Amino acid sequence: MIKKVNYLFSGIPMTIVAAVFLSASLVLLLNGISLPVDPAWVTVVICGFPLLYLSVTRLIFHKWISSALLISIAMIASVAIGELFAAGEVAFIMSVGAILEDKTVERAKKGLKQLISLVPAQGRRLRTNPAGTHEEMVSVEQIQRDDILRVLPGETIPVDGEIIAGNTSVDQSVMTGESLPIDKGVGDRVFSGTINRFGSVDIITTKVGEDSSLQKLIHLVQEAENSKAPMQRIADKWATWLVPIALAIAVITFIFTGELIRAVTVLVVFCPCALALATPTSIMAAIGQATKHGVIIKSGEALENMGKVDCITFDKTGTLTNGTLVVSDIHTLNESIDRDYLLSLAASAEAYSEHPLAKAVVDYAREQGIPIQSAIDFQMTPGKGIQVTVDGQALLCGNPAYLEENGVQIDNQAVNTIVHFQSQGKAIILVSRNQSLAGVIALSDTLRDTAKNMVKELHDMDTNIILLTGDHEQTARYFAERVGIKSVKAELLPSDKVDRIKELKDQGHKVCMIGDGVNDAPALKIADVGVAMGGMGSDIAVEAADIALIGDDIAKIPYLKKLSNSTVRTIKLNIVLSMAINFIAILLSVAGVLTPVSGALVHNAGSVLVVLNAAFLYDRKYHNGN
User: Fold this and answer.
1) CA angle, corner 302, sides to 301 and 307, nearest 5?
2) What is the per-residue DSSP string for 69-133?
3) Alpha helices in 315-427 (DSSP H)
4) Are 70 and 272 in contact (CB under 8 A)?
5) pLDDT tens digits along 234-277
6) pLDDT, tens digit, for every residue of 95-142?
7) Which of 157, 222, 303, 399 has its CA 20 to 30 A from that of 525?
8) Do 370 and 344 touch, CB atoms closer than 8 A?
9) Cβ-proximal residues to 496 (8 Å cutoff; 6+ apart), any chain
10) Which residues form the catalytic set?
11) Phi/psi of residue 34, each to 5°?
């Protein structure tokens, strides 16, 4: 019952009601009008109850002397001598501060639920008996190590395993962030939560239940979430010595002057309400400023930490790059075939395929106005390539191994071309016509236009930059060199990224992780600051992160650091202002210049000054912030 009342009174609607009655009390006070019941009583009850509840529970259950205790004492003392406006004012200011701070630290919890939803509920287990082999659908919990599972095209792989029959292409983006499905054959490993795109495969299970890759990914996110303690108010950090000092000064004042009203006034002006507002108001203004520029900051802690960051780790696909493959090179290996004709042959063959590489080739051909001819006898070998007949010509499109299996010779010139493209991190499609190698089509992800300048600006700010990616070493280094990143860690699983970030933190670095995929969620959580690409990034990554870039504009990263630095400076200035005002007000209270009412008004003026100073953050201009 008490908790329900506390929750009701702590809300914004009741705080507004309290503000109305406190204003009415001030108007009556200034005009010398008295009523049988002072309207400030309503404010004292509404704002005072949560204050008392907080101070008592912290003191009894947590052995924590908080700023709420000092303000509660001042409120009770003011009520005891009949100064209801002063009592309501200090309680109301504290309520406003609590609401503002709550708004800055709210965190969505939907991301973890979405991650858990990726776990498939069933698997297709194969059983062999004298009558033959048959399939049975079983729950994931029933799957044991060394069971044989069959995974059909389009199905999610339920547990970790190794392929023992069949070929396919597997979408591993949930684990590695790689933009391309990975071709898989007998002997290759597959992971739970990844998607079998094309061929049917049989796998023998190697890791099940809590040991599976996706379950470990979920646990990493949970552990990282739990490892982040909520931001503690500055006023509370200092309350352990503010409370005894305030009480001591009040008692000494009463002893030497004999006037209880002076002692109560000391308690009123000593209340750290302006100090309590210093942090949340500055953070709210900064968050509003960032929102105008398409940056969503979820907590004040993230904003403050961003200014302390000295090491930024980037994912590659969808972060530094656009995450979409386009045709980058068309290289002919037959003098009788020109570039456009090679593209026409490849697009005509691939028009019947659902593979992402095939779609990219067809889209490019259409953009270039290249004719796409009809094809017959289309056959696909998942994870390897296709064969088809176009205009009476037998075409093969696929990887080197596939063409060699079908009798196509790959000479040294072709090998050198393949190696050259692969060294640049590009995917390749070999095209043969009538058993003769015709050419190579290379496809590549593309860098974001702002990536290089963004990296340079961060380097100019003395920030260490590291690329953490699940992509192959050659691909990672190629893109890193193009943007100016020297430190590269490639072929990383989600747990590996977490380990790298932990190592950096252990070395004393403040680390920011920037990513976009589900596989980045644990790293985003464990970093001091996680930044997700909000436009094309997965919902799970966005929920896991502290900050989201709505327009996927990574040029905003340097702006974030500058905004954070300004916010921290403003908070420090507000703290100095609030302490200075309190110190002067205490001296005037001891001298008898201020009464509880006038002290409350001075106290209120200090809070307003802090809020106004914080508000300037909202419209402050930053170079390169747009």
Assistant:
1) 100
2) HHHHHHHHHHHHTT-HHHHHHHHHHHHHHHHHHHHHH----HHHHHHHHTS-SEEEEEEEETTEE
3) 339-350, 356-367, 400-405, 412-423
4) yes
5) 555 665 677 688 788 888 988 888 888 888 888 777 766 666 67
6) 876 676 565 444 434 444 555 566 677 888 888 777 777 888 888 888
7) 157
8) yes
9) 489
10) 315
11) -120, 145
